[in-house]
Amino acid sequence: MKKDIYTLGIESSCDETSVSVVKNGREVLSNVIHSQIDIHKQFGGVVPEIASRNHVEAISTVTKEALEMAGIGFDKIDAICPTYGPGLVGALLVGVAYAKALAYALNKPLVGVNHIQGHIAANYISHPELEPPFLCLVISGGHTHLIHIKDYTEFEILARTRDDAIGEAFDKVARVIGLSYPGGPKIDKLAKEGEENINLPQTYFEDSLDFSFSGIKTAVLNLHHKNPDVNKADLCASFEKATTDMLLTNTKKALKHLNINKLALAGGVSANFYIRENFLKMGEKESIQVFYPELKLCTDNAAMIASAGYYNFLKGNISDLSLNAIPNLKI
Ligand code: KG4
Ligand code: ZN
Asked: The domain 131-297 belongs to what CATH superfamily?
């Protein structure tokens, strides 16, 4: 019988300290997430120095809880898998240094995980039947990518944002209209009460599927400055409509280009209700199978890192103790 593989995922790239135990890449035994949102809220965004300090304070306790919840000890773990980029360098270093210490002390393999690969892998947990190849639209606070997932550890980027990530645009728009950090979920909620009655610019490039969100972000900011009484719910609904149209248009083109009928969404912004609903509608219309992670696995968590770690471990992508944090790590 094949031996079960247990991976320990460690995520500290931004403002969540999370540790998880995952069995065979798909079965979550524990996924403890210690969020710092309440600490950073008062500053209107993540303060890197404060994030690092809080990771240091939380990481041992969160790890202990994750093992207890999974009902196993360190001896059963087959690989220690920290996120090593992209992200905030000081925050990443906490998880990487902690994982290296564990790997050394326990004499276990260390597997550095790319955070974006983690977001993609969240879909493997929520959809046990999903296998590559497929197209993935990664939409988060730091990334907006269309990626061809050729195999579990083989990727080709088809498009990326040329300026702001979509989550960044959501958060900036939210801040200007007076919604607290993180703004994405607040826009999601308020938009449900509004009408898509404000015309906002959409940006496309000739001969490229790249994205750009700085134009629409600036248009919303100008509109709000000129007319502070503009209906916020309508503004949110119209902003969601225009950004979702841009995502849909380029994603449909990429699916056609690859001649693929399987699409997964990933990243914090894939928790957005309007985006989820409209991608499902598109899927029904165009006969595309659309997947997205359950809500808890859309935003940063260590289960997705443990899952991506599992596939890298199987592939033999083992890191050595010189593993370092790489803030702008590419997929
Ligand atoms: O994936 P994530 O947790 O962190 C990064 O890797 O960047 O994504 C965080 C982003 C934030 O910009 C947040 O506002 C956005 O995801 N977000 C949402 C929603 N939930 C989180 N954006 C729109 N609608 C949501 N429901
Ligand atoms: Zn993330």
From this structure: ATPase, nucleotide binding domain (3.30.420.40)
